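Ticket reopened. Same input as before:
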Amino acid sequence: MFKFIKKIINKIRNEYRYRKRLKEIKERDPFIY
Amino acid sequence: MTPSSIELSKINLFDCSIDKVKIYTVVTTRPELNIKNRTIVEYFGGNEKQESSSWTHGDFAYNISELGFRDSDFPESVDIAAFGCSYTFGLGLPENMIWHRKLSDKINKSIYNFGQPGMGVSAIIDLFLMLDNNLNFKKGIFLLPPYFRKSVACSFDERSPQIVPLMPNYKSFLEILYDTNYSEIYKHLPDEELVREFKDKIYMLDFYAGVKNIKLYLSSWDHETYNLLTGMNLKNIILLPEWTSANIDASDLARDNLHPGPIHHSSFAEIIKDLI
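Engineering reply: fixed in the latest deploy. New output:
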């Protein structure tokens, strides 16, 4: 049970980190070609 | 492997003919532009036409060479070669307002524009290596995009390889053809990997400049990328001042209302002119 909750928390934390990173990249490189 | 993968495997960046350059010039990968010979393109960027109503500097078009460069036909020799992304290509600006042209006027040297919109650092350096083998130039100036911008080799028909940019805000042909979610690529690639790729490529360029005894100058319009460059131990490359928007009116924009305008380009040329 504990392992399962830890896995879910990790997944949410990673998803948050990924989304933050993507947002930053999109803001710094707003260009199209 | 596909036939295009096999064709790509035969290309040696340090020793290849000029006709292979087209594989690396991203301008020629836009099927709707259909660049087979010299072509006049009225509007280039995705929303440039819609945004052009606020452009006050007079009408212009993009005169693209057969190889995909916004300049004359391929020269035999040139004093300085300019490399970079859409900033150097001059997306949203007429040719006489781009930084390399301003610099050329100031220092009275010929400068050829090898800028390619959407290109990442790695692809820009690959293009430089291919061109250095086919053209005599004494100096090269690079204005680099953010270190994280990637380009990907792919094929539209499994016969002809192409290098296609992966723009964080642009749905490329890679996504349409391969059903690739480019956002996921950027989301999941660790920053450390992107930095590793960037610094390895820059150090390789530095080594190459030493071996070939060619003078190379680097700058970037992305602050973090420039910071990375300042922290590197470059032995043969000269670091130019950073491209900056400081003290320039925020309304100075190109025709696409996205790229910096002519004052930015003049300012950069003025800053670097005594260092070249």
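Chain A touches chain B at residues 18-19, 21-22, 25-26, 28-33 (CB under 8 Å). Chain A has a mean pLDDT of 87. Please confirm and we'll close it.
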